[in-house]
Design a protein that fits this description.
It is found in: Cell membrane. This is Lipopolysaccharide biosynthesis protein. InterPro entries: Poly_Biosynth_Transport, WzxE. With 416 residues, the protein is mainly alpha-helical. The protein has 14 helices and no strands. α6 packs across α7. It is globular. It starts with a helix and ends with a helix.
């Protein structure tokens, strides 16, 4: 499997996920306007956080070690038994915490305690979401990109139907509820597809504590949980700051541009995640690793530049079509955001070396450091430039992150 073929299949899956996400955003924009889109962002940040925590944050670890152990059935069986035990224990813990604090979470994130029932549904769904994460990680570790794409496409189609039905019935509340239900519906596709794969064994559904494998997975758990905690929490803090200083309508404009950015970058980040994590994890030699990174830049960076330029040229019709004419002020925010996107992908490719080689301490420090610097830059730049300052902060922060990753990779290659 090469990057072109992986990109094709991941592109199909990403298009389906993107369509599902755009349906949600469009419906929320219709029913609730810019303020509703701002609250949608808050709920999606909580969902992304809990979705990772539901499995203990070990999906990247499962992908890495399945890629390494797939020719060693005994070690693979130990790994997966420990991974499933770890994931289900973590999902039970997170579900209980979310149930306990559902009302404060609803008041804090959505500014309305009436949404506490929605948080409770999300809490109960944690077990199912953990199992979905586990299945996807195992399939990805075997680099079965076609099967992975099939699960994601069919799962996204089920999610779209659910969103349309619930949003028409319950409006904003229904759209948010559909985000949770749609994740659970992926099991209807994922379990049969995985069950019919040539590498599936019933032993992959056993639960067992294994000290060695749990310790290995825990390193990835720390890295993934750091990223999962820091990024949504910082985005929530940024939204709260922008809402306090500029109002929720301005947050809606910022969120709209961010959603467009996330949407087109999803094609690239999905391909990088599906292909490069297991690939880099299996490479040991300096020359092979350097060649793989050069290959990534040769193919991926020109694509992101073309996509960013296209989005900029089409920003007005895109904003009007994806949201509504009420979002026209968001058009002034695209240029610095898109520059930041290009820098982000350049840094993202290099940052996978830290994940693939389990550089736990360095990864955690970098995530915390650059999350804090982003928030600080938002405060400084928005005070000076207004809402567009948040986009300047995004680009400036990723420029620093790119420089940091260049130093890390150069040092790692020098030590091989």
């Amino acid at each position: 499997m090469n990057i072109a073929r992986a990109g094709f299949y991941s592109g199909l899956a990403t298009a389906a996920r993107l369509l599902a996400a755009l349906v949600v955003v469009k419906l929320v924009a219709w029913f609730a306007g810019p303020e509703g889109v701002g609250k949608l962002g808050q709920f999606m940040s909580l969902m992304s956080l809990l979705a990772v925590l539901a499995g203990g944050g070990i999906s990247a670890g499962i992908v890495k070690y399945v890629a390494e152990y797939r020719e060693d059935p005994q070690r693979l069986a130990r790994l997966l038994a420990a991974a499933l035990w770890y994931a289900l224990c973590a999902s039970l813990l997170m579900g209980c915490l979310a149930l306990t604090f559902s009302r404060p979470l609803a008041s804090w994130l959505l500014d309305d305690p009436a949404y506490a029932g929605l948080i409770r549904v999300l809490a109960v769904a944690q077990l199912g979401i953990a199992l979905v994460n586990y299945i996807l990680a195992v399939v990805n570790g075997f680099m079965d990109v076609r099967r992975l794409a099939l699960i994601q496409v069919l799962g996204s189609m089920l999610s779209i139907v659910t969103v349309i039905a619930l949003a028409r019935w319950l409006h904003l509340y229904g759209a948010l509820l559909a985000l949770v239900v749609g994740q659970l519906l992926w099991l209807l596709v994922g379990l049969p597809a995985w069950w019919r794969s040539p590498y599936f064994r019933r032993s992959m559904l056993r639960l067992r504590f294994d000290r060695e494998m749990t310790w290995r997975l825990a390193a990835f758990s720390v890295m993934t949980l750091t990223a999962a905690l820091v990024s949504p929490l910082v985005n929530i803090a940024v939204r709260d700051h922008l809402a306090l200083e500029l109002g929720w309508q301005q947050v809606g404009y910022w969120q709209a541009v961010g959603k467009v950015s996330d949407a087109y970058l999803l094609f690239l980040t999905a391909a990088i995640n599906i292909y490069y994590l297991p690939k880099l994890a299996s490479i040991q030699g300096r020359d092979a690793l350097l060649a793989e990174l050069r290959h990534a830049y040769r193919y991926i960076l020109p694509v992101v530049v073309v996509l960013a330029a296209s989005v900029y040229l089409l920003r007005e019709p895109l904003t009007r079509w994806l949201f509504s004419v009420d979002f026209a002020p968001a058009n002034a925010l695209y240029a610095p955001q898109l520059v930041g996107d290009v820098i982000k992908i350049a840094a993202f490719i290099l940052s996978y070396v830290m994940l693939a080689k389990a550089m736990t301490r360095l990864f955690v420090i970098s995530e915390c450091l650059f999350a804090a610097s982003y928030l600080a830059l938002v405060y400084v730049f928005t005070a000076r430039f207004g809402l567009v300052g948040a986009m300047y902060a995004f680009a400036a922060n990723y420029l620093g992150y790119l420089a940091f990753n260049l130093l890390v990779v150069r040092r790692y290659l020098g030590g091989l």
